[in-house]
Amino acid sequence: MGSQESTETRAAQQEQIAIKMTQAKKQPLDFCELPEFTYASGLVVGIDEVGRGALFGPVVAAAVILPPSALPQISAAGVKDSKQLSHRQRLRLATCIQSLAIDWAIGYATSGEIDTINILQASLLAMKRAVLKLKVQPSLCLVDGKQSLPDLAILQRTMIKGDQRSPIIAAASVVAKVWRDELIVRLATKYPDYDLVNNKGYGTERHRLALQKSGPSRLHRMTFSPCRVGKN
């Protein structure tokens, strides 16, 4: 019975994706940053990461494919760089973005991977993983920042401050931020010493004091200098 329900759920999801793709193909792509790019070229995915400066937990990326018809709607709803939004606004907008998206996916790199390959490479890895998890294949990746994603066989365009310039990158920023914040809040129950519910893993004064008192957890980024402390 469960297997049948799972199959029916996947079929319904695929049907919804197909409907959104059909609707998208009827409209030109209206990016102010990409006036030369038309929908004839294919689907565009916006990609952004969050948590790059945190001391605890993974760096998380989202890849979001939106139909052109949704861009005015999300802009009117207030989608912009997630750092400029309140928690309540991000929750509301993330739900809106996910309901409108043709497809979206999350990728991340762990704190251990960050320590092994450095935060820049881990951020690029998280973004690449998000793209590879998409069920729908995009034709162009709009990547926030100035670094392209390595070994990805999809056309890419990097965009410095893309979360401020492109609504589809801003949408990815919002989805990634909400997903990561919810993860850190869940982890806070296991690591209660570090005030994670309030700081979301970033290096606030209370977080740094807790590191000095209790030492780092196994999910702290040991290559980040505030985490290189021992217990008193």
Can you give keywords for this protein?
45% helix; Nucleotidyltransferase, domain 5; globular; 2 domains; 232 residues; single chain; alpha/beta; five-stranded mixed β-sheet; 9 helices
Residue stretches low in confidence (pLDDT < 50, at least 5 long) are: 23-40
User: Looking across the biggest beta sheet, what order are the strands in?
Assistant: 3-2-1-4-5
Percentage of residues in DSSP E strands: 5-15%
Could you describe the largest sheet, including whether it forms a barrel? 5 strands, mixed
Distance from first to last alpha carbon: 56 Å
Order of helices and strands: HEEHHEHHEEHHHH
Name of the top-level CATH class of the largest domain: Alpha Beta
CATH architecture of the largest domain: 2-Layer Sandwich
- Alpha plus pi helix count: 9
- What is Rg? 19 Å
CATH superfamily of the largest domain: Ribonuclease H-like superfamily/Ribonuclease H
Compute the number of strand runs.
5
- How many structural domains in the coordinates? 2
Helix content: 40-55%
CATH third-level topology of the largest domain: Nucleotidyltransferase, domain 5
* General form: globular
Structural class: alpha/beta
Average pLDDT, all residues? 86
